[in-house]
Amino acid sequence: MSTTVNQGLIRSLGLGYVIIFILANILGSGVYKKVAPMAEQLNSSGWVLVAWILGGIITLLGALSNAEVAGMLADTGGEYAYFKKIYNRFLSFMFGWANFSVIQTAAISSIAYVFAQSFLAIVDIPPILPDLADISIGGLFYPLADLNTKIVAIVLIIILSAINTRSIRSGANLSRAILWLVGIGLAGIVIFGLSSSEAVIANSFDFTRSPDHPITISVMFTAMLAAFWAYQGWSSVGFIGGEIKDAYTNLPKGIAIGVGLIIVIYFLVNMTYMSVLSIDELKAVNADGTQVAAIEVIRKIFGNSGLIFISVLIVITTLGCTHATIYGSARTYYAMAREKLFFSSMAKLNKASVPSNVIALQAIWACLLVLSGSFDQLTDMIIFAMFIFYGATAAGVFVLRKTMPDAHRPYKVWGYPVIPALFILFCIGLVINTFITQPREAFMGMGLMMTGIPLYWWFTKKGASQNNQETAE
């Protein structure tokens, strides 16, 4: 256990909060939006449900593999701390930098973006600078397009970042309260949806598909990119390993319970969507680009009178997920700074024992990402980058079994070596398929991550210089 990283952090979070943290990190925009692009890809409700189940099972395989590593090496920083012990400082730094440049900050941006879309469905704000919407950077980014939504998203990020600088407990209590509201709302969608006269449950299990559009491995991989965004967030609990009581036991147990609950929730909610809306209606939602599948389901059941309900629910859900992502992600950069692999000012804690400087820097970059891209572009880029490191974590199970055979393992992954091996193969397949089917997102994500190579050299050189100066003094 790294005492250096944990000197100022307080272990005050139990198993219940680990589960809450996982649920709060995962339950975000994906549960409301991603069924539509999956319907476009698969053109069959039955196969869409299969993709959700497969995505959940694969996520669980990864989570179980991760849980063995987390149980052995529980520490602040998640994979950042794990990779340093499994591999080396360079790969550890590259994971931390990928989180800052792509994975976690883009997750904050994209979830906040959906919050803003739903908020503006309730509160009408006149368009801001609409004449400047076509201004672009290289024809790729349109920072002033949809400026209303982007401003609301940025304000949310700033407010939640400020809340997270107060104390660990203030963040935990907010997550718990929001999660209860989200759970009640999703239960309402399932209960009212499946019991409505518009629902035909058998339609959600229709496997009919045109011979011109067969189900291939590549098509399923592409469809599951959307599902994996909805499942994304479970590994973030590792970032707060240094603040969890009895982390060696509570971390793996909480991961398994949390992901298992999410699989059940997603199956029921998406079965409801496809019982109410046909595949053609879902494809139309996807083609429109501005609609949300969950909103269209509620509109069909209750008419326009239900729009406020679903919009408020999405606002609450994305509020909770944005908050949880901000809360956990900053701990990685704090750990990096303590080891002189990030900006030195990021290693400071405020009076509440919270890395407030890190949270502020994270907020600034997340706000810039809000201005840079669209929701789907950001989420596909995140999943591509994340599965590179998911695979590396699963490979760590094999490495640690060989290098540390006698180490205490509170949890051993079920089905070893088959389960982690299958997950590693899937990660490789998903990364290759993304390069083929979504090259723009893949190369953008890889490019941002690769900027960490020269920075590693710079931070290492600067850290060595500081160490020499401290030794001389």
Description:
With 473 residues, the chain is an all-alpha fold. It has one domain (3-468): Amino acid/polyamine transporter I. It contains 19 helices and no strands. It has helices at 3-6, 15-26, 30-33, 35-42, 45-73, 79-86, 89-122, 147-163, 168-195, 217-231, 247-276, 279-288, 293-302, 307-338, 356-372, 375-403, 418-437, 439-450, 452-472. It is globular, with a radius of gyration of 22 Å. Mean pLDDT is 81; it is low at 1-9.
Question: In summary, what is this structure?
Answer:
The protein has 473 residues and is mainly alpha-helical.
List keywords for this structure.
0% strand, globular, Amino acid/polyamine transporter I, 19 helices, 473 residues, mainly alpha
How helical, in percent, are the residues? Answer: over 70%
Low-confidence stretches: 1-9
What is the average per-residue confidence, as pLDDT, rounded to a whole number?
A: 81
Q: Tell me the quaternary state.
A: single chain
Indicate the structural class. Answer: mainly alpha
Outline: globular
* Domain tally: 1
Q: What Rg, in angstroms, do the CA atoms define?
A: 22 Å
Q: Could you outline the blueprint of secondary structure elements for this entry?
A:
Layout: H1 3-6, H2 15-26, H3 30-33, H4 35-42, H5 45-73, H6 79-86, H7 89-122, H8 147-163, H9 168-195, H10 217-231, H11 247-276, H12 279-288, H13 293-302, H14 307-338, H15 356-372, H16 375-403, H17 418-437, H18 439-450, H19 452-472
Helix pairs in contact: 2-9, 2-11, 2-14, 4-5, 4-10, 4-12, 5-10, 5-11, 5-16, 5-17, 6-7, 6-16, 7-8, 7-14, 7-15, 7-16, 7-18, 8-14, 8-15, 9-11, 9-14, 10-16, 10-17, 14-15, 16-17, 16-18, 17-18
